[in-house]
Design a protein that fits this description.
Layout lengths: L1 E3 L3 H39 L4 E2 H7 L8 E8 L5 E6 L5 E11 L2 E10 L18 E8 L17 E2 L4 H8 L3 E9 L22 H25 L3 E5 L2 E5 L9
Parallel strand pairs: 2-3, 4-8, 6-9
Antiparallel strand pairs: 1-10, 3-5, 3-7, 4-5, 5-6, 7-9, 10-11
Helix pairs in contact: 1-4
Length: 254
């Protein structure tokens, strides 16, 4: 049996705070299930069959996200741009992004990476394809530029984010879809650019966040009970014997 004389105001505040903490924990559990579903969907799309361009356009940019898509057309190599980034080992690289003209409109294709010394087209002439080609790549809607992303160097055509609107405006083209197609790892003549650079990483710390919120709720309840015990407002009685009363610790025989 428990004899408990709670303080009204403290109890109300504790109930409200505990409910908020538990609500945040439950929300993180929901986010965890959503994130796991997203990861499974992306994995399934990237390993699925190659879609023809018409099918991808009919699905819409969002639904076709991370699907492999085949495009047939030609590159406008004179309008290629360079997105500064880091390579697999943290080294500086440039992504070569080139307009690709198809019968259904223009697309931006990320052909892959080159080291800084091969940024200029003249250093890799074998890798500048002419004429009609069919390429396969990942259909991807890039993230928006961050608040602190540097402005592009338009003279050198160097960008620090895949700004679709800015790239299309600089190239004087109208995109058929607000996406970048990231070329697969099929080798280019001369070895550069090196495709197959799609990186899919999803931070998934929702389980840790949920444990944190639920842990804080549990700690708050424990502190609430301990405070009442310290004031002598919480007694525990078992089979007629008082096991715990206020500030008095239980006896050795108890």
């Amino acid at each position: 049996m428990i004899h408990f004389r709670p303080l009204p105001r403290l109890t109300i505040a504790t109930v409200i705070a505990t409910a908020i903490l538990c609500g945040l924990g439950a929300w993180q559990i929901q986010r965890l299930h959503w994130k796991l579903g997203l990861i499974a969907e992306v994995t399934r799309n990237m390993s699925g069959p190659v879609l023809p361009l018409g099918r991808a356009l009919a699905m819409g940019p969002d639904a076709a996200q991370y699907h492999r898509v085949a495009l047939t057309g030609h590159f406008e190599n004179a309008k290629e741009a360079y997105i500064f980034s880091t390579g697999p080992n943290g080294e500086p690289v440039y992504h070569v992004v080139t307009p690709f003209i198809t019968a259904r409109g223009a697309f931006l294709v990320d052909r892959g990476i080159v080291p800084p010394e091969l940024r200029k087209p003249g250093t890799r002439q074998n890798g500048e394809p002419d004429g009609a080609h069919t390429i396969v790549g990942i259909w991807h809607i890039p993230d928006s530029a961050g608040l602190f992303t540097p402005a592009p160097d338009l003279k050198q055509r160097i960008w620090y984010s895949r700004d679709l609107v800015g790239l299309a405006k600089a190239d004087g083209i109208a995109l058929a879809a607000p996406v970048i197609v990231e070329a697969d790892a099929a080798p280019n003549p001369g070895g550069w650019p090196r495709g197959g650079q799609t990186v899919v990483t999803f931070r998934n710390g929702h389980l840790q966040y949920a444990v944190t919120w639920f842990g804080l709720a549990w700690a708050l309840v424990c502190m609430y009970l301990a405070y009442h015990w310290s004031l002598g407002r919480l007694d525990v009685i078992w089979r007629g014997r008082r096991l715990w009363r206020g500030r008095t610790p239980p006896s050795k025989s108890g």
